[in-house]
Amino acid sequence: MARLRHLQAGADQVQARRPWLAVPVATVKKFGEDRAGNLAALIAYYGFFSLFPLLLVLVTGLGFVLAGHQGLQQDIVDSALADFPVVGDQLRRSTGRLDASGFALAAGIVSAIWAGTGVVKATQDAMNDIWDVPMRRRPNLFVTIWRSIGTLTVIAIGLLVTTLLTGAMGAIGTSFVPRSIGVVLSGVVNVALFLVAFRLLTVRDVRIAQLLPGACIAGLAWVGLQLLGGYLVAHQVTNASETYGAFAVVIGLLWWIYLQAQVMLFAAELNVVLANRLWPRSLTGDDRSTDRRTLRQHAEVEERAPDETVQVEFHDESDGEPREPAPG
Cys-Cys crosslink for 143: which of 11, 30, 139, 287, Cβ 3.0 to 4.6 Å? Predict the structure, then answer.
């Protein structure tokens, strides 16, 4: 045990002196302290149920726009929808063409707004937790719904642009160069989309430059997960579906959404660590100033009334006396 503690202390000193190690360590540690894995699971839960109304709106809307253009409809189905992770191939085979139905479009829009508001609200709560926004400063229900609708609009525009880019590259050709250009353009759009979403999803006053590192990671990871999803469809899910039926599709889709939610929250945690300089963090349990500042911010999140103030003291284990007085 003594040797293990010695090795742990040595590793702690090594990472503390190197920002390229200290920043990831601090991000992972804050990710665990914020229980971001649980928050990602909640986002994935709402995201799974909001996905199908969005697909209904997409398919039906394109059916109206592209009515009478069967060839172009088939190009969109084969390119854009086929690239949708896990279920894209099955959507392409089951749809075959884009049907235009007013009732389906109306039902899809209402369902998408209702379900999408839930996933955006869950993401707002997660972002405010990550940025340590006190409960008393968080928006009320009406402001939350308004911000959710605004964020949904941004996401819808981003998805539409990405779909059009994918469809355009698919119409140009399926060789390496058009597909590479489509991937690069999609990555740029995704980075911009996450940059705007990160700004809208928290009430903390944050500069755009402070959100750029996480937006780059989240946007590029989204492209990578799309490619990974396409690979799984082509090489794994298709064969698994013959044996396990719908279970393979559902499990794969939930896994993909949950992984993307985790990556997004990890990127947001990185933004917080960089913006507030919350590194280096201790690996041995000895509180550094950044550890104390981070834990203090976690406690201040529980301020729920305008006249409520949460204060934190750190005590020395040897004598029980305060090691650091509470501020103010």
Answer: 139
